[in-house]
Design brief:
heterodimer; A: 334 residues; alpha/beta; Leucine-rich repeat, LRR (right-handed beta-alpha superhelix); nine-stranded parallel sheet; three-stranded parallel sheet; 10 helices; 17 strands; B: 155 residues; mainly alpha; Potassium Channel Kv1.1, Chain A; three-stranded mixed sheet
Chain lengths: 334, 155
């Protein structure tokens, strides 16, 4: 039977089923189902239904499962002989002890000109490794040849090395969750990723004062969700149009944001009552009633106000018709 | 040209010489035949080499049903398809070869999906036994198997 037909039959199957079929036949072995996206997790690689298996509170993934997982991914990639791979997603609990494997998969994705790389090594909060995987910038090609546009890292380390960080230059979007970030690393990323349009920081440890500065004209959307350790956020980004925040920071400083159109801020209840031990995390955005003065709009000198609406905080350009001035609001001036 | 033949009918001749009279609309569901008709290089009798009468009759049955049932509910057609492709592996192999060679897309889709269903969710051991000895799937005779794909199959 022709290779096209075999490949077509395999395209109806899941990764796991197609590998099972291919390992049985010499002829099928190197037939590759036409797959532009590879998605590896407990289910696709090991055939384990995570919820059914770990619902009884036993959330630790055994050493044996981990070892089978990395071997399985290796074997699937070895069998993959397509020309291009659009996206590679790995969702499994792996720490830096498996860096040798993960580095190899990333090398593979670079050869396959992958545009979207999604590494989620948390799998479940309980089984999270203390030994976070270090994302290997040094593997990315230098200059403009990198095809990587979307990078999503969960429970990884993004260590700042100015020499290598410039290799992220092709990135348009960066999504970090449970990825500790210090100011110098943030600066390096912002100053070297010139094509950057979308940045999200979630559940990550951030510096006390987070400064989003940089010459990047392209950063349009910035989202900060429930990050730790941050007290003040300073934003100076010419192209920024949307800023979304969820957490407990009350001190925002908008320095140079001429294109900012949408700001959405919501606070988490426990922080409003100043009780860090309280476990309540329901959203509460009903306690601040005064509009907050953020600054002056550069073009018209109209006031930019942070106001409280039914769906959280928003920014309004100019004042209400009644024209009252906000009282006691802290002002960030420039 | 045979004058008794209606204008929109074609004759298909199988590899073993049997002739089938089919409406043109049915015959052109095969892209290969459609191209021949459009290029006017087809006489009233179109030879279909490599496809014997038995298989050709099946393919025609499938195409006729798909041609007639354009207005019918899609679910009826699906039921027909799944019954149609429910055959032994030798017939499946011949049908796939014919559908591929004559370029009958609907038939090829249904057949390949059926073969995929035969593999889906089964253990390596089971797939091996199922296809062993058939042309459809040239199974390795050695015992070489990557273990991690088999371990959990007997769960």
């Amino acid at each position: 039977m022709s290779d096209d037909i075999l490949s077509f039959i395999l395209s109806f199957l899941s990764i796991r089923d197609s590998v099972k079929a291919r390992i049985l036949s010499r002829k099928w072995r190197y037939i590759c189902p036409f797959m532009l996206n590879l998605d590896f997790d407990l289910h696709t690689v090991l055939g384990i239904n995570y919820k059914a298996r770990y619902s009884n509170g036993d959330s630790d993934i055994s050493w044996e499962d981990k070892s089978n997982f990395v071997t399985g991914v290796d074997q699937i990639l070895e069998l993959h002989n397509g020309q291009k791979l659009l996206s590679l997603r790995i969702y499994f609990c792996l720490g830096n002890e498996y860096a040798g494997y993960v580095d190899r998969w990333i090398r593979f994705s670079i050869i396959m000109k992958t545009e979207k790389l999604d590494l989620d090594f948390s799998a479940s909060p309980e089984s999270q490794s203390n030994n976070l995987y270090d994302f290997p910038y040094q593997l990315l090609p230098q200059g403009d040849s990198s095809q990587l546009k979307y990078l999503c890292l969960k429970s990884c380390n993004l260590r700042s090395t100015p020499n290598h960080i410039s290799r992220l230059v092709s990135l348009k979007s960066l999504d970090l969750e449970h990825v500790p970030l210090n100011q110098s690393c943030a600066n390096n990323i912002l100053s070297s990723c010139l094509n950057f349009e979308w940045l999200r920081l979630k559940n990550s440890i951030l510096p006390e004062t987070l400064c989003i500065h940089g010459p990047s004209l392209h950063l349009k959307i910035l989202i900060v969700h429930e990050c730790y350790g941050v007290e003040k956020i300073e934003i100076s980004s010419i192209g920024l149009t949307t800023f979304e925040y969820m957490g407990k920071v009350k001190n925002f400083c908008f320095l140079d944001v001429p294109r900012l159109e949408k700001v959405h801020i919501s606070y988490i209840a426990k922080t409003l009552y100043g009780d860090d031990d309280e476990e309540v995390t329901s959203q509460n955005s009903g306690t601040v009633e005064e509009p907050k003065f953020l600054g002056l709009y550069p073009g018209s000198n109209e006031k930019i106000l942070l106001k409280n609406g039914p769906y959280g905080f928003y920014v309004q350009l100019g004042e209400d018709r009644k024209g009252y001035l906000p009282e006691g609001a802290s002002v960030s001036q420039y | 040209m045979s004058s008794s033949l209606e204008k929109n009918m074609l004759i298909l001749r199988s590899s073993d010489g049997e002739e089938f009279i089919v409406p043109e609309v049915v015959a052109v569901m095969s892209k290969a035949i459609k191209n021949m008709v459009e290029d006017e290089c087809a006489s009233n009798t179109i030879p279909v080499p490599n496809v014997d009468a038995n298989i050709l009759a099946m393919v025609i049955e499938f195409c006729k049903k798909h041609d007639e049932s354009e207005a019918e509910a899609a679910s009826d057609l699906k039921t027909f398809d799944s019954e149609f492709v429910n055959r032994g592996q030798e017939a499946l192999y011949d049908l796939i070869t014919a559908a591929n060679f004559r370029d009958v897309k609907e038939l090829l889709d249904a057949l390949c999906q059926n073969v995929a269903e035969m593999i889906k969710g089964k253990s390596v051991h089971h797939i091996r036994i199922q296809f062993l000895g058939y042309q459809l799937f040239e199974i390795l005779t050695s015992n070489f198997i990557w273990n991690i794909w088999c371990d959990r199959d007997f769960d």
